[in-house]
Amino acid sequence: QARPAASEPSSFPMLTDGALAIAYLRRLGFGETEAADLVSGGGFKAAGSAPLTLLSDLVRRHVLRVPFENLEQHPGRVRASKVTPTEERLQRLSEVRKIVERIALGGHGGFCFDLNTAFAWLLRYLGATLRLSLARVSFGGSFMEVGAHLVPLVELREGTFVADVGFAHTALVAINLVGESGDEAATFRVTVTEDEKLGAYTHVLQRQYKSSKVQAFSLDTEVDATQVEDNSWNDCYAFRPADNLEYDAEDSRNGLEFVLTDKGTPFCQGRVVILAQPQGYIILSDRRLRRVEGSEATETLVEDDAAWQKMCEDIFSLPLLTPPAPKAVEKKNPWLNRGMSGSMNSDAPKSVFTRTVQGGQVGRSQASQEAAVGKTMKLGVTDSKSLAVGGAGAGGGLGLNAPGFGPKVQHFAARSGSGGKKSINMDPSIGEAWGQVVDDKDATAWILCRYSDDGKDLQLYQKGQGGLQSFREALGDEMAWGGFRCYGIDKRGGLECKRPKFVFVEYKPESTSAIKKARQGSHRGEVKEAIGGAHLDVVVETNEDLDEQDLITKLQAATGAHKPNGYEFESGVFLEADFYGLGIGKSCKGESAAGVAA
């Protein structure tokens, strides 16, 4: 692979790419001579080098030193005085050197489209063979509909490795696509999925914590710290292993635009800064700072902006102010002492209040920290004495997938019951109209809801008394939500039983852009609060998706062992659905084994 072109637009045009690579390595904690030797000595292609050891060392240093942050989206005194326009952020994908300069020389962090893009540039400059792949993040039990995470895949003689430094609470090592890889806190693996809905996103990165008791990771620190017991494999994201994307590929631009503009993501809802720790992380949101070490969490509530500014400054400064780790740990980590005593440092504003969660035992946390320091002493091909302990940077992408985080729903960004901001304003008449549909004594049989012109409100568009056909005719060509009533019919012997069935519909016409479809999907949880109690959820792109026979198949699959032998979508029109082949009406043989044999 060729090294990045030196002719790219630059804020520091007097610096060569080699000098910029050295500055980047210095940001990662390499000494001046170490960085220069690594750049001039051939990097990954140097004779006698250990590429996998080098790659894992670079990943670890990056995650521990470069913070995740979204401050360009939220103005403030620290790091960003104004919001950076979306178009400017998108343009940087075509001017990657500017992203590298911001991290190497500007002291910034970012999320995956910043951190992984810059890291890919550095790895390529050092001679690594690398591809960029798009991923769909797992959230609340399912995968996002839009690829909104960028993943570097590095080809080494040992195999292909995920080198992700831009995903929340990620690994501190490179992850092999074959077998398992692990750090102090968790084990990671890549599995192949057969879920046809994921299409080309065939490979899934999964995490399993080494301890059964962990702190549930959350970007939303309005949610109280929660210790959970979970030793199962949890999905992080699904990625496309065959990808070899350009930095500014259309898929990358669409993913970045989604992260920057979708109001359902936490990135748009408030400031967040994350620093990784060997066995945990530090996360600062608008109202709370949380430090997690293993299964314990310490929290500091922020009561004014001055306190927040000071905490943010301390987080960004931490990797530079923390001294290199000695061979024998003789004194406690300054950050640990300050964090457990109730403030960031002795000069912290008096308006902060610290609450310890799950004990906050200084001794246990200190022992854990020192043990983690010891494990880092011999990592990599360089002297790890130049690696500052307790450094920064976990996060990026939408990594909202740790056990215990978020409501148990099968869709993206549902915030119902969490006490957080609503992603869409719901017309109260929607719930009232759906109540009429649910009441089978009411003639109202379906409702349809559409977005307001500014997309901020969901309004009741129409309700009707006809059957499925009239609902289909009302759909039109705009995104909508709705639901209808049909009936499961049992005709057995001389008896007929009629039970209402309710179908929840998410309508996204084929002509709708992927970005709009993803934004619509983020509202599902709140829509289902108003249109609830359905027996079946369907996603519809055309009228053909509401074919009666297809609906019967899905409704039968959603029922228990006792299944209706017919359905009614239009008044008085009975459609057979003899699942067990037992007959209908007077010819019905019953559901026993003897009846089937007869």
Q: Kindly report the average pLDDT value.
A: 77
- State the secondary-structure class: alpha+beta
Shape verdict:
elongated
Describe the largest sheet: 9 strands, antiparallel
Total helices: the number is 17
Instruction: Kindly state the number of beta strands.
Output: 25
Percent strand: 15-25%
Radius of gyration: 28 Å
Distance between the termini: 71 Å
Low-confidence stretches: 1-7, 323-420, 591-598
Helicity level, as a percent range?
Answer: 25-40%
Short key terms for the protein model shown above:
24% strand; 25 strands; eight-stranded mixed β-sheet; disordered N terminus; alpha+beta; 598 residues; nine-stranded antiparallel β-sheet
Give a verbal description of the structure.
The protein has 598 residues and is an alpha+beta fold. Helix content is 28%, strand content 24%. The protein is built from 17 helices and 25 strands. Strands 2, 3, 4, 5, 6, 7, 8, 9 and 12 form a 9-stranded antiparallel beta sheet that branches. Strands 18, 19, 20, 21, 22, 23, 24 and 25 form an 8-stranded mixed beta sheet that branches. The chain has a 6-stranded antiparallel beta sheet with strand order 1-13-14-15-16-17. A hairpin with a 2-residue loop joins β24 and β25. α1 crosses α5 and α5 crosses α6. The longest helix has 17 residues. It is elongated and about 90 Å long. The termini are far apart. The N terminus and C terminus are likely disordered.
